[in-house]
């Protein structure tokens, strides 16, 4: 059980890197244990993409961060598709190697960016959950990185002035406060587990998710990734 640092309402610049390291240590061994055929499985959260496509997107995004290559339109759907296409001739193992490098080296760059790149780390962790769902693996949007991911989610939603929400979570000792706190709108209330809250904020399918209660805000208002 972990008490979220959002009680201090201060960004921890090292948190994104810690989250990426935790995910690297769990996801990369899983990927290396899977057959090549598994990389062709469809990913429900990303229509039209396979596991390989998601991983190519993740690895390329992190390497862009590491190399600080942020040309106009970076991370747009068109840019993402180009990054995936550039890796079309790569082996699955090479993509996993690049992903491991990115998860290892991107943290310090994200830390120095002042918060603007924090969503990249959270998005990578969410995509790890997408891949686990495609594989039929347990623990999607959970695992050792969940407390860091939840606290980072709070930081990101506050920075964006997102809809306010107080979440009473099975996974944390104290309520998690998300979104802006100007008082102009009373906060919504969520009661449930962390992985389901992540699914709601990431706009992921709720198939197989645990039951939850949501009041004062609609689920569609929580999605921070759009679409």
TrEMBL record:
Q: Name one GO molecular function term.
A: isomerase activity
Task: List keywords of the entry alphabetically.
Answer: Isomerase
- Taxonomic superkingdom: Bacteria
Domain Mycothiol-dependent maleylpyruvate isomerase metal-binding: start-end pairs = 21-105
Q: Which Pfam families match?
A: MDMPI_N
Whether Disulfide bond counts among this entry's keywords is: no
Q: Which InterPro entries match?
A: DinB/YfiT-like, Maleyloyr_isom, MDMPI_metal-binding
Name of the protein in its database record? Maleylpyruvate isomerase family mycothiol-dependent enzyme
